[in-house]
Specification:
six-stranded mixed β-sheet; alpha/beta; elongated; single chain; 42% helix; Cytosolic phospholipase A2 catalytic domain
Length: 316
C-alpha cells in the first residue's frame, strides 16, 4: 500500500506537473475566474413585432435641405401693346428691356400698331428677330394720305399695305408663333380677340376694319379691350401683365386710339406694370429708334421696384 502510493505520487509528479500540463491548467483556471467575475454576455433580444399603427415606421431619417443653387424662379409676363401708329413702334424697346432682364414674355396682346410689333416678336421669339422685321416696315404704308384713302374704301391702298405686310410676315399663322399671340380685331359688330388664322389678315383687321376694305364708323383701330380678359384668364391665369400705352394727347387725330388708352384702365389690375411711353407725332416714323430707346429706358427704370414687389430677384 505504501509503495503503491509512493509510486502513484511519483507518476503524478512526472506527468501532471510537467511544464506543458501546468500551463494548460493555469489557462483553464484563468478562464474560469474571468467567467465568474463578468458573467456570460447574451445577445440583445430581437424587437417584438408590432402592427403598423402601434409605433412610428422605422427607417432612415428624412433628407435634410438640399445643397446647391436655388432653382430658377419662373419670371413670365404677358405684354399688352396698345395703339398709337408711330408711337407704338417704341414698344419694341420695352420687349428688349424685358429680355435683357431675363423676364420671359410668355404671351402678347396687340392692338393696331401694337399688333404689328407683337406679331414681329411672337413669330420669331427673339428681340433681334423682332427688330429685323420692324426695320422692313415702310413708313409710307401708314402715312396720313393712305389712311385717308382707306376711309373712302380705296382698295389699291389696302392691297398695298397687305402686300407689304405679307413680305414681312409671309403666310404665317397666328397659332404657329413662338410666343402666344392674341390680336384685337375690329369687327363691324364689335371687337374680337383672335389667336388663330392668317397673321396678316388679323393685323390688318386690327389696324382698321376687317381686311381694311369695309369702312366702319370711324375707319380706325379698335377702341376697346373686350375679350382680352377672358382670353388671358383661360390660357395664362394669374400671370402678371405689362401694359405699354403711348401718351396720346387730346389732339391725337384718331379718336378710337384715345378711347382705347382710356378703356385700358378698367382692365388693369393692381399687380400689373403700366408703362406710358412718349407718343410724338402719329405719322413720324423717322424717330422710331429714338422712341424705342426711350421706352426701353422707361422700362428698365420701372422694372426693379416692380420685380421686388413680386419677390423676383434681380436678373443674374
Amino acid at each position: 500500500m505504501y509503495r503503491f502510493e509512493m509510486g502513484w505520487s511519483a507518476n503524478l509528479s512526472r506527468h501532471v506537473l510537467s511544464p506543458r500540463i501546468r500551463q494548460a491548467v493555469a489557462l483553464l483556471l484563468i478562464a474560469g475566474l474571468w467567467g465568474c467575475a463578468h458573467g456570460t454576455r447574451r445577445a440583445p433580444p430581437a424587437p417584438a413585432l408590432t402592427s403598423p399603427g402601434d409605433s412610428p415606421v422605422q427607417g432612415p431619417p428624412p433628407p435634410e435641405a438640399i445643397f446647391g443653387p436655388a432653382p430658377p424662379q419662373a419670371r413670365k409676363v404677358v405684354v399688352l401693346l396698345g395703339p398709337g401708329l408711330s408711337a407704338a413702334m417704341g414698344a419694341a424697346g420695352v420687349i428688349r428691356a424685358l429680355e435683357e432682364a431675363k423676364v420671359e414674355v410668355a404671351g402678347l396682346v396687340g392692338m393696331e400698331m401694337g399688333a404689328v410689333v407683337s406679331a414681329a416678336y411672337a413669330i420669331t421669339g427673339t428681340a433681334n428677330g423682332m427688330d429685323w422685321r420692324l426695320l422692313q416696315i415702310r413708313p409710307e404704308w401708314f402715312g396720313k394720305g393712305v389712311l385717308d384713302s382707306l376711309l373712302s374704301r380705296d382698295q389699291v391702298s389696302a392691297e398695298k399695305i397687305r402686300a407689304g405686310l405679307s413680305k414681312v410676315f409671309g403666310s404665317s399663322e397666328i397659332s404657329s408663333s413662338k410666343r402666344k399671340l392674341w390680336v384685337v380685331v375690329k369687327k363691324p359688330n364689335g371687337i374680337e380677340v383672335v389667336d388663330r388664322g392668317p397673321l396678316v389678315s388679323a393685323v390688318l383687321g386690327s389696324l382698321s376694319s376687317p381686311e381694311w376694305l369695309t369702312a366702319t364708323q370711324e375707319g380706325e383701330s379698335p377702341s376697346d379691350w373686350g375679350g382680352v380678359e377672358a382670353a388671358l384668364s383661360a390660357e395664362l391665369p394669374d400671370m402678371p401683365r405689362v401694359w405699354v400705352l403711348p401718351k396720346l394727347s387730346e389732339k391725337w387725330p384718331m379718336a378710337s386710339a384715345r378711347a382705347a388708352i382710356r378703356n385700358a384702365r378698367q382692365w388693369i389690375r393692381g399687380s400689373d406694370l403700366v408703362l406710358e411711353i412718349e407718343a410724338g407725332e402719329p405719322f413720324d416714323f423717322s424717330r422710331r429708334s429714338e422712341r424705342a430707346y426711350l421706352a426701353k429706358k422707361t422700362c428698365r427704370a420701372a422694372l426693379p421696384l416692380w420685380m421686388g414687389e413680386r419677390g423676383w430677384s434681380a436678373a443674374p
